[in-house]
Amino acid sequence: MGIVQATTLPDDKPTAEELPDYRILVVDDNEACAKVMMWTLEMLGYIVQMALNGPTAIELAKSFCPDVVLCDIGMPEMNGYEICQAMRKEPVLQNTIFAALTGWGQKEHQEHSKAAGFDYHLVKPVSIEALKNFLLRLDKARVRIGNAECDG
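Request: output the structure for the sequence above.
Response:
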């Protein structure tokens, strides 16, 4: 489990050719934040879907089969911890990489993220360069093997 805060990521500038072609699901109850993140990721060349609540995110994830889930924590009805725990139970998402993307950066929040099954904990706001670097660090082979049944 790696805990990554936006402030600790280097600002190396990867080229477009270096960026993996991940499918990314953005989950955030703040529609404006979700759209900006989705558009940013699309601008970087990723295939992106978004969901504004937990139940929608879980259902969408089963058919979209994201390689990476970027999930806010503080959401009504079903919080990000609960969403991650529920998605971790889905066979098609067994090797999906889960990153909390939240304004909550305290040590206790990072510990809760880890306990809930998140692989990473990113603290908002995350710069575009930090986001690129984060996505470059992920283990692409792990993701593709885990989601192979969705690639058909």
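Strands lie at 23-27, 47-51, 68-71, 97-102, 120-123.
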